[in-house]
Amino acid sequence: MTRARLLLLPLLLAACTPTPAPPVPGDDVPTVARATRPARPSCVLNPAWVSALGGPAGLMGVNLRAPLRAQATPSLFDQLLDVREAINGSYWGESGVDLQALHEQAETGARTAFGNLRAADLTAQTDAFMNDYVDGVRDGHTYFLDAAGFRAFRDSLSAAPTPTPRLGVRWAAVPGEDGAVLLDAFPEWPAAQAGLTRGDTLLSIGGQPLTRQPGDSDAAHAARLSTLLGQASAAGAPVTVTYRRAQAGAETTASTTVTPLVLSSAPLPYARTVAPGTVLLRLPTFATSGVAQQVHALIGGAQRAGATHLILDLRGNGGGLLSEAIGVAGALVGDRAGETIETLDGQDVTYAYRNGQVLAGVNCAPTSPVLGVGTPARWTGRLTILVNEGSASASEIVAQLAAQTGATLTGERSYGVGNTVTVIGAISGDRGLSVTIGRANDLRGQPLTPDVTPSPTTPDDQRALAHGHDLPLEAALK
Prior knowledge:
Number of strands: 18
Number of domains: 3
């Protein structure tokens, strides 16, 4: 999820309107004091806030908080106050922005744009404003989610069924060309069952060509493709797909029939053999429970089959649950897997992998179980990690923990939030807010790095992929 945008709308509004409308009575958003980090308290296995969640096992499912105001019709005033309270009370990242000035500037811009804040209904326009406001923190882990985005996030946590039938793929518009190149065709889902695979380029669906319109940018082309693919899938009826496949230096065009289905919102990892003795383990997300269990099972199976080289593909994996990430890292680096999260309230949490379990401790050695793996595995062969600019958060944590113990990184520089931890929770209007609530250190007490950068880098070129060359994978196989 690429969220690195600047605060634009409030700045422009303030610049264009030298005398903003004054607040109406009761319309002033209350000032919220910025909390400060206390001296580290003594070891407490289950402080009150952890007990309220049901113990350490509930740590990874915690939302920032539920909305405090339960009006029948929440307003922009409520969202502005929610964001002030959440950021001033919880933010513990590395932004150099003056947060108090940001809040005041946003309030002024909101009143200029929308008038009486308590009377301002929540719309697509206020969502755009709030998005720019929160992006003004200038922290890639701190961002606003509109209603659809927040619903999708919650669905991914529980692997809830998708709202409408889907093909079961991830795709990207081919830069500068027609068509949609498949980044994933998940096993046992409709597209893969119909014979489609990563690198195939969809040229038409249901008789509708996926061609670039004259003058279209890549972004405009991608938006049009998203509409066409969504419309073709939504009814759940069989649909004919024409695709191009590049293989062994030749490109061929073929057609197949795909029947879209309602699927899980969070695909689990899968593995395939890509060369003698080499297994590619694709991990698309850490966002749902069961990821670590599946990774351990796949690694165990690869070892029993005699594999000596494991390629862990984290490209496009935007992160997810820290407990799952530490569980996955345990299969790669054993007891080196874990981290300590420094928080603004001083209740620092340590997670560590020990013998098939992820344990947690608050200002203590980790002893309380958070996650367990039924049949733990430990990879001991050659290990390569594939990353790109879409690899973020938990992906960056796993990649750098693996690199500390000798894994090879291949691909592009990652997104750049691997040294912090975020929590996503509800704010008024059924929107969501992600706030960076912690700075991450490894188990030796050393700060983790924001990104991981392979040396040398290999571009994850989607145009090359559409013509038969997965450049990072080819580099990993050399």
